[in-house]
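Contributing new complexes? Match this layout with flavin-adenine dinucleotide.
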Amino acid sequence: MKILVAIKRVVDHNVRIRVRPDGSGVETTGVRMSMNPFCKHAVEAAVQLSEAGHGDEIVVVSIGPKVANDVILTALAMGAHRGILIETDAELETLAIAKLLAKVVAEENPDIVLLGKQAVDDDSNHVGQMLAALTNRPQATFASEIKVVGQGLEVTREVDFGRETVAIPLPAIVTADLRLNTPRNAALPMVMKARSKPLSVRPAAEFGVDLAPRLTVEKISPPAERVAGKTVGSVAELAAFIANDVSAMEAL
Amino acid sequence: MSVLVLADHDLGTLSPATARVVNAVAQLGPVDVLVIGEGVDEVAKAAASLVGVAKVLISQSDAFASAPADSAVALLETLAVRYQFVATSAGSVGRDVIPRLAAKLDLMPITDVVKILGPNSFERPIYAGNAVQTVTSNQPRQLLTLRASAFRAAASGNAAPIEPVVATGITTTAKIIAAHRTESDTPDLATAQIVVGGGVSVGSAEGFKLIETLAKKLGAAVGATRAAVDAGYAPNDWQVGQTGKIIAPDLYIAIGISGALQHLAGIQGAKKIVAINTDAEAPLSKLADVLLVGDLFDVVPQLIAELDRLGVKS
Ligand SMILES: Cc1cc2nc3c(=O)[nH]c(=O)nc-3n(C[C@H](O)[C@H](O)[C@H](O)COP(=O)(O)OP(=O)(O)OC[C@H]3O[C@@H](n4cnc5c(N)ncnc54)[C@H](O)[C@@H]3O)c2cc1C
Ligand SMILES: Nc1ncnc2c1ncn2[C@@H]1O[C@H](COP(=O)(O)O)[C@@H](O)[C@H]1O
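Output block (do not edit by hand):
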């Protein structure tokens, strides 16, 4: 079986971001970047499937600037076999990303495509579902467990009411949630080995996809600030505050 | 300009999120509500009672059980062309369906909308709510998911007509083989007026019961941090934050919760925040409206007793 994993390079999830005062965006220069956490879970899932005998080849693909090489190397060190960087300096919309990935799916014809459920920069939660639409494949989003059963997958999904397990045929698209697994930290020999694994770099323009944005981002603003409150000295004071607040709600 | 709202429901009950979505999009035009599923007559009736609804479309088929994205999108694709807007709540069904529908229609969706500025202008949070994006669209139609907690609910009292839509030829490749519902009689987390949240510091599932007892006392919904869910103290559908539910209660009581960025992402809409924490320097302690520094195992039982004494009843 062949597994394709799409990974995104984003501002590290521990960084407290700063909105540029002119409203043009979020400051990313000089900020630590890393692989989107959800994508790490997707890579780990692919490696675990492969270790269980379900994946002969794991190909990772990232769309972004030249420096996005680093997240591909991370994935190769975790156990992926081959990388593709689709190079562009433009900030592409999710639909354009999904169209580029659909081209890669057409070329590579993987049995399973794994993605993160969302990228923690734009928080879109789009690309997996869009790719499933464009490739006419079934989708299982927000996965917390993936099992290969016969010719298909049984995927447990985290949904509003709890969890549900769906059976879908292959080929299929799966997006990873955080409880899917615990991503490994690659050991040094694996990191060294990653550098010798094949990594092809291809310009985004080569794919013949219309990458023009559909939406206009008018501005990026900081969220409303909360003002600091007060500290109470006793449970009685706290209870009085809560009781007051609750009766004010009831009065409405 | 007309709007199609995909209703959210579970176990034959309309989700409270739908009333909020209907109310939010009513400013964009007359609203039709689409109810898909199996045995959803009561859901359709509940939707028809919402003020602002022009009509309810109901499509019943076993291909829609648990709303798998492929069959839901197959139906929506045919209906969407009649509307300027297709909207639903940013819950697990909306997040699954709307992007797939968008790609089928070659449109960019606008998701997690928290403010509607006009027919083609919307605000949505990015970076776990640490920035807000204002986007405009010139596309022929807008596909939206809305954060229900950011909007008020439509009143009921309407009696809109209900029309069946046939779903012939619509099938799904997804088969539901198991569902684990969290048994609980607490209110819907995403729309609750009061939420009591617990962190990993409760130490055990048993310890988390303290949180649940306080919630019950206040008629509140129960929330949890990812760390508490990962540790197995609380079910996944109680998680609040960037990866969990987004809440905007009038009162959020956060107990033993540090206030990581990803948790704060879920509570920015809370009107008042109370924090109980041993650490006065924890991020959440610093932004709470009211902080009590103390050990939750001492404070929470005392608080429940004190609320009893004050006659607070759910
Ligand atoms: C991509 C990503 C997405 C995430 N999404 C979410 C999400 O949706 N929701 C979420 O919650 N987290 C999320 N997280 C995890 C988040 O970063 C934090 O790890 C998590 O919120 C911490 O949970 P906590 O507050 O329970 O634990 P901790 O951070 O360990 O905090 C425990 C707190 O309890 C206090 N405490 C300890 N003992 C006591 C006591 N006896 N009495 C009172 N107070 C006590 C401590 O002072 C501390 O403040 C995400 C992380 C990532 C990387
Ligand atoms: N630039 C990109 N390159 C590769 N994969 C991406 C890119 N953007 C998004 N993805 C994939 O799509 C998932 C969901 O992203 P999003 O829809 O942007 O929230 C991510 O976790 C990745 O797996």
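Reviewers usually confirm one structural detail per submission. For this one: The helical segments of chain A are 37-51, 69-78, 94-108, 127-134, 188-194, 235-251.
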